[in-house]
Specification:
The complex is a heterodimer of chains A (324) and B (307). With 324 residues, chain A is of the alpha/beta class. Chain A contains 9 helices and 12 strands. In chain A, the strands form 2 sheets. In chain A, strands 6-7-8-3-9-10-12-11 form an 8-stranded mixed β-sheet, with helices on both faces. Chain B contains 9 helices and 12 strands. The chains are: A alpha/beta (324), B alpha/beta (307).
Chain lengths: 324, 307
Amino acid sequence: MEKTLVVKNLALAFHQERRPVTILAGVEFEISSGETLALVGESGSGKTLTALSIVKLLPPQARLETGEVRLNGQSLTSLSEREMENIRGRQVGLVFQEPSAYLNPVFTIGNQIEEAIKSSLSRKEKKERVAQMLAEVGLDEKHYWHYPHQLSGGMQQRALIAMALINHPSLLIADEPTTSLDVTTAVQIISLIKTLIKKHHLALLFISHDIALAHYFADRMAVMYAGRLVEIGPTRTVFNSPRHPYTESLIACLPEKYKPGEKIRAIPGTVPDFANLPSGCPFHPRCHRRMERCFREEPEMFPVASALVRCFLYGNSVATEPGN
Amino acid sequence: METLWQLNQVTKVYQLQDPFGRTVRVEALASINLTGHRGQTLGLVGESGSGKSTLGKVLLRLVPPTSGQIFFRGTDLTGLSETRLRLWRKNFQIVFQDPYRSLNPRLTAGDLLMEGIPGSYRERVVRARDLLLKVGLSREDFYRLPHQFSGGQRQRLAIARALGPGPELLVCDEPTSNLDLSIQAQILDLLLELKQDYALTYLFISHNLKVVEFLADRIAVMYRGHLVEVGPTALIMKKACHPYSRALVASARYQPTRMFARPVRAGCCYASFCPRGQSQCYQQQPPLQEIAPDHQVACFLPEGNAS
């Protein structure tokens, strides 16, 4: 069966001033219906740009160099802007970080959700559809008549989820949907999304900087560093036995992995600047298991167990036995 | 355990104007009693708007309390004049969440550090250099401006600056919330190291219970201006008694808690959301009471402790 979303060999560059700056390189993943893929990485790793490339909402200086995006078997890469408008909202729902920024303060919640309906229905049918959607996201009927400022951040996010799902899309992209919310609310929103994914057999691309949250939430996990996927596989495999040194180090940065007073094994250095990527493997300056060739060559994805890992420790190398 | 600082019935009320010019009373701190022990880390957690930061600022008298007393090493800071207070300020310093806004963009790292260090010019330069290295920056960074540093480095600089006067108490107000996981780990390590080397006492304010669990000896939980529970870290994480603390702990483990929302105007600060409310809860705010040694809860029906 065709996967809901297939992203193949995506490469993206920013064209500004003199030379183009490569942002994404060789990004590849698939999501089938009912499945959640978490895209995790630190800020500036290219997570959001990956999501925006899928729906072609890129900033003007960004250009897709290579790659293909297929949604339900249809290639989006060659579509015109007008054709894309039919895809967004209808086939792909989007939820972002700051809910208040995506709601118009002068229209009621119900009004705005109703406006998002793309099929031609009578007013009465639309109203019913909105009421049904409000109930699904855990909002009350009365919230139809409320303005955004009358809702808390969590409720606003619920309204946006309702808006994203009102046309029954097959793919939902959620970019840090809980980052600006309080923890207790965040967990409620996450479990709501989880329920809705199951119910509607949606494919979910969940973007987060929080690898612990992704672990709890996703079926599969893709870890991103400097615009490259460095590891992708089933969540349990990636989280419990990370193969890529970056994934391993990132998980080792979680404070809950330590007893009080223990020293955290932090990753030295900082995330590199895209305009100045290190030679070879972009992670090599911070890597604790780098080899000589990592300075010169960039590794490709090698299969390890059920995962794919972008590291020379796992392929086409000379007798280096990776310990665990 | 020796007491370093103490808040006694501290209240902070802000009088705000609503868009129609009417005065609105916001009680940011409601009669807070809290003690910090010397050499320990006290973690202060709560959702945004719960008054955590206000508590930190009031403790350092950066913001005057509306009523109540602040004791530092047994001296009441509330009664001191600004001039007298200035002599005390070297003993307690603060690190803010956003190092982009809390560092003067026109001063070099060296100047920023030297501002807070007492002594002759020579001594100040030497100590500023030492501090730079101590927080993991390099000698060359002395002449750089804040915008030339990354977020993590800037937070290191903010920490070095706070250490300049040689404080005993350091209030850390969400120092890692803006940072990536890998940088957060570096800063947490640094804070642990500095605590040992300089025998510091921390008040660590954060909404991230997992970070607080890692760093703190004791945890204080705030909700809407009230302290709802105070106790040793392990106890709060395993056997919290206040329903809000429990919801926080569950959320840190990604377990959703059912939230009730009923409009309650009076009574307990958590009554609108509490799953266990009784008639008493809708009439008055329960006081913070000691239910076991070093464990205080503000709840009429503490969970897991029903006698």
